[in-house]
Amino acid sequence: MDASWIPGRLEEAVSLLVAACERDPEVLAAWVGGSLARDTADDWSDVDLHLLVSDAQAFGADVAAWFARVMPTAMAHPIPGVTHGFVFVTPEWIHVDVVWHDRADFAQDAYPARVLLDRRGLVRDVASSADEMAGEPYLPDGQVELFLYFMGVTVTVVRRQEWLALAQGAAAFRDTLLIPLMLAENGVRKTDGAKRLNRYLTAEQIAAIRAIPAIGSDPEQLVRAHTAIAREYLTRARRLTAALGEQWPVALEEASLDLWRRELDIVVE
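^ that's the sequence the OP posted. Answer follows.
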C-alpha cells in the first residue's frame, strides 16, 4: 500500500489496521474518512476507520477484542450517539475511531473516503479537500438574535454574582458565536472537527481573538472579557449583515445595549 498520504506517526497504526482487516473474512471493505481522506491529516490526527461487515451485531459484540488483537489499548468506549462506533486510544495516544456498517442495509454516503480494502467492489474513494468547505459569506441563522439575548442573560448572572457561570458564558460567546461568525465571514462551512480552525481564519481574525482579555475567574476580568467579545462580535455581525442585505434586529439590540448601560455601566458601540 502506498503510504505517502499517511503522516509518519500514524503509519504503523494504519498498516496494522489494514492487515487486521485483510485477515478477517467478516470485514468486506475498509476505508478511512476525516482528515486522512481529505489529505489534510498530520501526526496528531485521528484515524477514522470505517468497516463494512457481514454481521454488524456480531462484529460489535467483539469489537473491543478485535481492536486489542491489533494494537494495545488504553481506552475503549462506545462513541456517544453512534450506534456502531467505538473510540480507541493506545498507550502511545494513537486515537482510532472504528465505525462498522452492516452489509445488509449499507449505502455509502458522500463523505470523504479513502478505500483501504474492498473484497467485492462495494465502496469507492470520495475525494475532498479543505478548499471545498469554503464558499460565499453567509450569516448563521438566528445567531445574532441569540447573541443579543445572551447579552441580557449576562446581566442576570452578574447580578447574582455567579462568576463560574459568567466564565462559562464568556467562553461560549467566544467559541460558539464569535468564532463561527468569523468562519461565516470567510464563507467556511467546515466539517472537519473542532481541532481544525487555523487554516480557516485570517491573520486579522486570529489577532482579534488573541486580543480578547483572558477569561479567568476574577469578576472584573470576566466583565472585561465579555465586553471585548461583545464589541468584536457586534462590529463584525453588523458589517456582515449589511454586506448580505439581511435584516438587523434593531429592537433587541437596543434593549440589550440599554440594559448593559443601566445595569453594568458598560457602553458597547
